[in-house]
Amino acid sequence: MSTLWLVATPIGNLGDLAPRATEVLASVDLVCCEDTRRTGVLLRHAGIRAKRLTVCNDHTEHDRINEVRRVLDSGGDVAIVSDAGTPGISDPGERIVRSVVGTAHDVSAVPGPSAAIMALTISGLDATRFVFEGFLPRKGRDRSDRLSLIASEPRTVVVYEAPHRALRTLDDLRSACGSDRRVVITRELTKLHEEVVRGRLGEIDIGEPRGEYVFVVAGAADDEPADDATVEAALDAALSAGTSTRDAADQVAAATGRSRRLVYNLALAVKERRGE
Q1: pLDDT tens across 224-263, in order?
Q2: CA 119, 87, 1: angle at the middle one, nearest 5?
Q3: How far is it, in rounded angstroms, from Cα 136 to Cα 176?
Q4: pLDDT digits over 99-140, tens only?
Q5: Which one of 10, 49, 151, 162 is at 20 to 30 Å from 228 when CA atoms are compared?
Q6: For residue 216, what are the CA distances in angstroms to 111, 162, 200, 275?
Q7: Do 103 and 68 form a contact (C-beta atoms < 8 A)?
Q8: What is the mean pLDDT of residues 48-58?
Q9: pLDDT attached to residue 228
Q10: What proportion of the chain, given as a percentage, has pLDDT over 90?
Q11: Cα–Cα distance, 178 to 206 (Å, whole number)
Q12: How far apart are the first and last CA of the chain?
């Protein structure tokens, strides 16, 4: 029985390619990829000489269905990869999978890197239940409706964004969700210039946009800010550990989502009570 494999590939650091992914990519009869040049770099890095590559992107995925089915029907295995991450998650793969499900062939996967999961797990926001939105609609009623849903969504929301739309999406999220909503914005995950910025929508600054972004937005019902007593307790612990006032304020503001200025003033009050 032939198998259609969905193979997760590194989202930046080529060292994240799993050994089993290497085995599958080296053994299949056809690799469907978004860009043969980028996948070629990955395959060369892993020492793989693929039997055959074919382009499978947003524009060509439907056209690849018959080709994939022919390979599977002839007894060969097929792998789908995206440029980065897990195929089918805001990347091609879903339509081919649907065409194979229910046939005599197996559909399986080699799990691995996912920007959404990485951003969620390092965000510090509630990861018990979350919503993956992928890329928002670019304009019109569809975009405004989706933003309204995010604003009222009680679960943590994960959004992908391209660099040239990052600032606009930040502004739109701020307008929809309010300035106090906590957000963690990551870019270039696992790459040399990986960056994680934490704060409130009303005050967060991502600088000049570069690279691919993941926005992790706190859920509406789970976004109660830490009260002053909680902030002061955290500041007291940090100051007791020898952290400077400035660094303690920065750390606690990032952890609680409270305004850095407010936290700094509370830190001064804590130091005064401590007689420092």
Answers
A1: 567 788 788 888 888 887 888 988 888 888 777 678 888 9
A2: 140
A3: 13
A4: 999 899 999 999 999 999 999 999 999 999 999 999 999 988
A5: 151
A6: 22, 14, 11, 40
A7: no
A8: 94
A9: 84
A10: 74
A11: 18
A12: 74
In this predicted structure, what is the pLDDT of residue 225?
64
Core vs surface per residue 89-115: b (16+ CB within 10 A) or e: bbbbbeebbebbeeeebebebbebbbb
User: Between β-strands 78-80 and 53-55, what pairing exists: parallel, antiparallel or unpaired?
Assistant: unpaired
List Cα–Cα distances, 203 to 45, 199, 236, in angstroms: 41, 7, 24
Tens digits of residue pLDDT in 97-106: 999 998 999 9
SS (HEC) of the chain = CCEEEEECECCCCHHHCCHHHHHHHHHCCEEEECCHHHHHHHHHHCCCCCCCEEECCCCCHHHHHHHHHHHHHCCCCEEECCCCECCCCCCCCHHHHHHHCCCCCEEEEECCCCHHHHHHHHHCCCCCCEEEEEECCCCHHHHHHHHHHHHHCCCEEEEEECHHHHHHHHHHHHHHHCCCCEEEEEECCCCCCCEEEEEECCCCCCCCCCCCEEEEECCCCCCCCCCHHHHHHHHHHHHHCCCCHHHHHHHHHHHHCCCHHHHHHHHHHHHHHCCC
State both tokens at 12: 């930046």
Let me know: does 206 contact 185? Beta carbons within 8 Å: yes
Q: Which tokens belong to 146?
A: 């989706």
pLDDT at 223 over 80: no
The sign of the CA dihedral 82, 87, 91, 93 is positive
CB 72 within 8 Å of CB 64: no
